[in-house]
Input
Amino acid sequence: MMLEVTSLTMRFGGLVAVNDVNMSVSRGEILGLIGPNGAGKTTLFNVIAGVFPPSAGTVSFNGNRIEGKSPDVTCNLGLARTFQIPQVFTSMTVLESISVGAFLRHRNFAAARAKATEVAERIGLGSRLEVPTSSLTTAERKRLEVARALTTEPQMILLDEVMAGLNHTEVNQMLELVSLLRDDGMTVLFVEHNLHAVMKICDRIVVLDHGVKIADGLPKEVMEDAGVVTAYLGAAVSSDQENADA
Amino acid sequence: MSRFLGYFDWKRTDGLWFAVLLAAAFALPHFIENDYYINVLVLVFLYAGMASAWNIIGGMAGQFSLGHTAFVGIGAYTSTLLFNYVGVSPWLGMIAGGLLSMLMAALIAYPVFRMRGVFFAMATLAFGETVRILLMASRKYVDMPYGLSINYDPGFIRMVFEDRSSYAMLTGAFLIIVTIFAFGLSRSYIGSYLRAIRDSEEAAVASGIPMRKYKMIAFLISAFFTSIGGTLLAQYILYIEPSSVFSTAISIDLPLMALLGGIGTIAGPVIGAVIALPLRDILLETFGQSAPGLHLVIYGIALIVIVIVLPHGLLGGVKSIRERFVSRSHARSEREEPK
Output
């Protein structure tokens, strides 16, 4: 297992945001983490990324315990993340900001620049290298996030709602990008609202509701799971009706 | 050596700028005969160097310190006390003061780096004041006069010179060393990390940057060079007292010069010092007799106007004009392209 989350609980005062969740991601897998608003996806994601330590439970990455470790340590171990709202380095050009990630493994300037350029070209930002980051579109900023994470040469990448705020075409482009990552053998954990995207790309889906894991399996199985449907729609739908709708 | 050079992003024009700076720092003291102008030159070099040192933590790393007078004062006091009471050459005292300033910076770094933006500025401001008050309070227990004079006894080893042009060479060398250091930092991965921290701490940490470590590096280097400036100031004036070297005015002047020229850039603080100091002097000369105090009012208004018109300093202003020009000519060429 590349990432292993064991009986993880996160409390904020009296609120239990994540309750005793077990989850694992194996090497090369693309795992989607979904759930209705307020289900605890982002909290779980943030605990894995090291934003805050869990109230209880462990997170291990490649056998190293990483819960409560600061994000720069986890990044150094090979677990990189993106932000839902792109955090761009506003004073830099695209190439400069991608290079920031590359310096983690390449302190030599030319080597870092070469790595950054290579990743930028693969991500589809090759023609925008000298553009200031402040003039990028939302879709480009999301790509920049992925590029910055990838240049740290991770084994696994955490994507926080990379589809949010993108239009249909841009979602498809982002899906192509994630497929590229899959071809590279990258392990991906994906927090996502966009179910269409999740269904299309994920090998496996974990569903959270009210902080509890309610389903874990292949996309098709999960979507047919009565508990998941209830969580999303609030009421059970009979299979007859579902067939009629389809 | 080539491996070392590989850590930096050199550009072709770098050598040219370095030559210009070198020529300015070593030729100007020889060409200027007038004592008054030499005095201005010494202060410009000195303040430009200290503003550049401030700029490493305040501009590049974006941690707006308002307590740098503490380092100026520690530098001035350490070398002067060591010279007056122990007989240590100021050349060594200068290094001792620099190291002591780094130690102080490391001590306060832990609490102040937990704060961001305005809170960081307030905390460092309080730090600067505290050091001065502690020094003044310590006179109850230690036999030390309020002000310290350095004997006027010219000699290289004592870092006291007969003519002002030697001081101009000395402060010029200081400016060059700080500039080279700041330049090297900004063109290496460290400079890139500092800018990343300034722009977005979250994204910087997520890119694998141990933030505290790099803020600390910037703070220590900045404290060291600011402290060296303090020693040079003491050796030039030959008299120090708590209210002259531990003064909020210094803490504000250094960031002000950086802001004026272009905060976070290498040339910015130098340009800022070149403008601010003579401007203040000219205003004082013009209005000092007829309307005392008016020069400060006009100085203040001038600064406010400059900051409003050029929010990114003079360099930022030049850059935006150039960009506007380039994009306009770009748009024109696109329009003229046949469809």
